[in-house]
Amino acid sequence: MHITQLNRECLLHLFSFLDKNSRKNLAKTCHKLLEVFQDPLLWSLLNFHSPVELKKDNFLLGPALKHLSICWYSERVKVCNIEDWMKNSFQKDFCKRHENTVSDFLLDVCNRCPNLLSLTLSGCGHVTDDCILQLLKNCPNLKSLKLENCVRITDHTLEAVTRHGASLRTLHVDFCRNVTQAGLERVREKCPSVMLRAERSANMIPDSKPERKLMLEKASRKLVQL
């Protein structure tokens, strides 16, 4: 039996085991498999592990998307995982080239994926409060928002949660060093049903205090001299 002789349900099941590139390559072989690739039911879950993946055409965004994860780490390039003053030139160049990639992608999600239920962002250092605000407004069913090491996230995101996160049940802001204890307490007060986690966030040195960063730079230079 040839694969194209299988019914639509079986083909969707088979496609579900493939990664995005494999799905795209298989869809190029015939019109019937292209239709399966384009079926919204196939794209309820998306995981990305590199900024480059967001720019490819091997996936579909649409109302069927329920769960989205954008997480990346690298032993060579720890994208926004350490203080800016510690980054070498290669790391700075990498971050600059991908500065708006995630934010632009998430704004596209806002416009095309209103039924999103969960969003996980890790190491996405250029995502802003405004981007999360738009997501909360445009995805009213969002139940889980997990942010890790998103250094531009501040109390404005926490305020947006209290105003627009009516469906939210889980909020993580781990290693988001620019949120404060006051902001976290406000979420606990206004949204008692939300399971809030903020591991190593409000107690970390925030980017919003340049004098503290200057002190760290001086300390770092002294250590190098020693």
UniProtKB/TrEMBL annotation:
Query: SMART domains, per this entry?
Result: LRR_CC
InterPro entries given in the database record: F-box-like_dom_sf (IPR036047), F-box_dom (IPR001810), F-box_LRR-repeat (IPR050648), Leu-rich_rpt_Cys-con_subtyp (IPR006553), LRR_dom_sf (IPR032675)
What residue stretches are annotated with the F-box domain? 9-46
Q: Give the UniProt keywords, A-Z.
A: Ubl conjugation pathway
List the CDD domains: F-box_FBXL22
Which SUPFAM superfamilies is this protein grouped with? F-box domain (SSF81383), RNI-like (SSF52047)
> What start and end residues bound the annotated signal peptide?
none
In the UniProt record, does the keyword Transferase occur?
Answer: no
The GO cellular component terms are:
cytoplasm
Entry protein name: FXL22 protein
Q: Read off the lineage from the record.
A: Eukaryota, Metazoa, Chordata, Craniata, Vertebrata
Gene coding for it: Fbxl22
